[in-house]
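The following record pairs a protein chain with its ligand, (S)-3-Hydroxyhexanoyl-CoA.
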Amino acid sequence: MNVGTSDRGGVRILTLENPPVNALSFALCAQLLPLVEAASADERIKGVVFTGASGIFSGGADVNDFSTEPTPETKTIRDVIDAIERSEKIFAAAIDTNALGGAFELALACDYRIGTPRARLSFPEIQLGLLPGAGGTQRLPRLVDVQEALQIMLKATRLTAEEALAKGILDRVGDDAVETAIAVIGDGRKRRLSERKAILPKGVVPQALPFIVSQAHKMVPPEGKGGYAAHKLVDAVEAAVTLSFKHGLAREFRLFDELVRSKPSMALRHVFFAERALSKIPGLAGAHATNVAQAAVIGGGTMGTGIAICFADAGIAVTVVEPVDEQVERAKQTIFGMYAHQVQRGRLTQEEAWTRGRSVRFTDDYGELKECDLVVEAVFESMDVKKDVFAKLDAVVKPGGLLASNTSTLDIDEIATATKRPAQVLGMHFFAPANIMKLLEIVRGKATSTDALATAFAVGKKMRKVAVLSGNAFGFIGNRMLFDYAREAVFLAEEGVPPYRVDAAMKAFGFPMGPFAMFDLSGVDVSWHIARARPDVMTGRTKIVDRLYEMKRLGQKTGAGYYRYDKSKGGGREPIRDASVEALFAQEAERAGVAQRSNVSDDEIVQRCVYALINQGAALLEQGIALRPGDEDIVYVYGYGFPPHDGGPMWYADEVGVKSVYDAILHFRETLGAHWQPARLLEEIARSGGTFAAYEAKEPAHA
Ligand code: 3H9
């Protein structure tokens, strides 16, 4: 970490060097501040250019610093910006690639902002449960109007150089931003944003400000549902108009400091770092990732088509093996329809869409897969069918080619026995719809080589997936935890809590949909098959799933499942409470001798469902199926809609207190039955007064 200094004519160039993203850490700011002050005091200097080393201006404040308590000696971006405000010199920011958060704020405090064509400016603070806290909420509304500033900050819009130039945020764009900045300083004068007034949108009178502000408050989620920082951000921007610059700044600082200590922000920062820790896998550092130039997908159904699109989007040519003509036609229509939509929305050019669409080929001949570096099988979920496919693939695909299964429950080691290359066999479990969902579970079999894993992670990165390593458990990480969550939801309904109430409680907790709506979406037949395959995992007390299955109430696709669906309402996707299902639950419960209860609170519903996730999460850690609690959190945030401002189930356990979770589980065991056996690891952490976050710091169990 360093700040490079050099002089060109009367201009001092200060280069931020703090790999990997030139974060403006407390330590870097402590170096930067005296350099700004020295330049300000130097009579030979007319101005200062800030730039970043290694092709990036800066990723903003160092997010790690937010967890340390600043001392009176601590120097932050605010101190550097104060020094710029006090100085009579002319300051310019020369921005190549990213200027994010605090770095954007540093640039806004400068008199001029110059970008290369690759410059990207944004305020991502909101995604960390924060607001721009180094003057951004006060300066941006003085450069673009209040409404536009709100949009940019609330949506964390990533402005391209062109957009920033058009909005007047960048003054110039040039291939050599430093050279341009030096020239601009040569002709320039001081232009402090702090001396301007906030700008109201065209045609808006000052009296209309409360309306803009109330609209902004309405646009964001409620405080308890992920909107905690957003409302404070709106308050800070309002202050830019209603208060003096100095007082507005003080307001922003206070709000930022409150947010840094808030639970939602701590949870979101955990998600940020947990996501970046995913690929740090013991033993993988020296592994060699093969370049995947040619891929294949076996099966052109919904899942296979989605996976083929992922390859095409990643720039990897892909062959889909599908013997049924109608299926091929349907897949082609899906692919071209999807790309046409992207062109319509302006997300892709016609040419890009063509290139991607054409990179997907269809065949019914395995013989064409000889040169494939990676094949993903996405056929019917049956061990016999999959083994047959793997045996065929093993016979044709070149030695070293990876063979992956998209199975969501089957044993990867058993699938690998159908081949002579178990080291090249692994799971790549995509989530539906595969081309939209970010989560990818990469499943390591007993014999899977580290090179194969490294290749799968590299492909996941190219696909812009969030890839999580899982051991070979039934349901891997996500579904294995889900089975216990689902069990509790069904048990609650058997005890007399109507499905709509369970769903409402889970939605109020923060899930986008409740468990019963989710069962109906994925299909009651799926639950039925799983319960048949593994009655030990999908433990049921009643025959409710069998009954629904017999009645062909398979969920949304048949217009009825746990709910009713009406095609004329919400396209047949909106769950409608169905008293007949509630009666069926009561009947089945009576037959199975499950006592009915009338006193189940919403808190109990949430605790039973969420603690079931936590308990199984702990068990998977103990067994080495999941590497870190953070990996499980990412699976739940990205794959199952766990509210990110609660950080994922394991982070949430720490927030509630692992001991409280453990005590509640003991109580459930006593009152609800032996299936509530606390995981050993949960017990250990609870007894020692520890946290899952601390466990994370330990050497992972499965390497
Ligand atoms: C802020 O600025 C507050 C101010 O308003 C007020 C202050 C008073 N800090 O993502 P990658 C690390 S809030 C610390 O894989 P990419 C990251 O952990 C901040 N570390 O790379 C990883 O470390 P490791 C607002 C950071 O090329 C490594 O860099 N800024 C930070 O795909 C590579 O990261 C943000 O929210 C950081 N700010 O993407 C920016 N940024 O190798 C968040 C990155 O040990 N960052 N790291 O795992 C990003 O969006 C992306 O990281 C970036 C690079 C686009 C920069």
